[in-house]
Known about the structure:
Blueprint: H1 3-13, E1 36-42, H2 51-61, E2 62-71, H3 80-96
Parallel strand pairs: 1-2
Amino acid sequence: MSEDELKVARADHGHDSRVEFIHALAQNLPLPPNSVDQITAHMAIMLMKPIDPVIDEIYRVLKPGGRLVAVTATTVPAPGTLGNINNTIELYIKSQHPKFTQMPHGDPRSRSLE
Length: 114
């Protein structure tokens, strides 16, 4: 949503012809179905409400076997689809990287609804 943040990303990664930066709403991506290898949502997906249309759109544009990489900022239990996503990520991290769960995670303020 931020053209300024896209400028920074283009400056850092614009030389890679495999990467394209698009300024669009996540609920309505200007991309054909099954056209994207990977979508990265860094510190964003937890802000998108309602989340279900966003997930539907991601599913629509990802190629079979494509990947969604989502970094979220909270450990507060969330309802619905976002909560399911966070729970799946947490279970995966616990099973694959058990020592990681013993580390402190970010700003403690991100662990409360306030």
